[in-house]
Amino acid sequence: MLLDAVHMEFSPRYHHTADMLLEEQMIIESAKQNPEHFGAIYDKYYKPIFGYIYQRMDCKETAFDLTAQVFLKALTNLEKYEYKGVPFASWLYRIAHSELMQLFRTQKNLRTVNADIGDLKHICEEAEEEYMEQYKGSLMTVIKQLPEEQLQLIELRFFEKRPFKEIAEIMDLTETNAKVKLSRILERVKILLTKTSK
Question: Domain residues of the chain, as ranges?
C-alpha cells in the first residue's frame, strides 16, 4: 500500500523532504511485486551499509561478504518490511547490526574499534565531566572492553554521530531506552576509568 506524502512523518536527518521518502516507499512497494526493482535500493544504500560494517572490522573481504548477506536477507524478507517514518536504510542497518553481532559471537578477533581523538572528546562532553579529559589516554582501552551491545551504542552515538531516533531503529530499542542505556554506559565508563587510573 502506497503512502500519502502529506501524512508521512519524516526526519530531515535522513531526507530533505517527505516526497523523497514517498518516492523510496514506492520503489520498495514495486520491489515487493518485482524483485528486479530492488536494484535502485541496493545502489542507493550499498556504500553506507558497507561502510557501517567495515568500520567495525579490519577484513575487507569479510565486510564485502557480510554486506552481500545483508542485502540478500533484505530482499528475501522484503514482504515483512513495514514503513515507520524513516528511510529504508534503518531497516538495512538493523539487519547489518544483527549480522555483525552473529559474526562477532563466533569470530571476536575480527572486531575492531575505529575512532579518533575528536570522537573521544564528544564522549567527555556528553558525560558532562571535565575530569574525563585527563583520562583520554585510557578511554579507548576502556571502551574496547565494553560488552558488544554497549560498544555498538558508543560507536553509533559518538563515532558515527547518529541521532537517538536512528540508533533506536538500528538496535531495535525505543528512543528513550537508547538514551537511558547510553547514560548507564557512560556511568560505567567513568567508574572503569577511575579504577584504571589507580
Answer: 8-110, 117-196
Contact 149, 140 (CB under 8 A): no
Please check whether the domain covering 117-196 is classified as CATH 1.20.140.160. Answer: yes
Residue 158 confidence (pLDDT) above 50: yes
In degrees, rounded to 5, the angle at the alpha carbon of residue 79 between the alpha carbons of residues 78 and 84 is 80
Q: Which CATH class is domain 8-110?
A: mainly alpha
Amino acid at 11: S
Helical H runs in 128-173? 136-144, 148-154, 164-171
Amino acid at 94: R
Q: What is the mean pLDDT of residues 114-122?
A: 62
How many angstroms separate the CA atoms of 175 and 141, rounded? 28
For residues 149 and 138, give the distance between their C-alpha atoms in angstroms, rounded to a whole number.
20
| Cell numbers placing 197 | 587510573
Which grid cell sits at 154?
558508543
Confirm whether 8-110 and 117-196 share one CATH topology. no
Instruction: Please report, as a single letter, which amino acid is at residue 148.
Output: E
Indicate the pTM of the whole model: 0.74
What are the cell numbers at 84? 515507520
- State the cell numbers at 7: 501524512
Q: What beta strand segments (E) does the chain contain? A: none
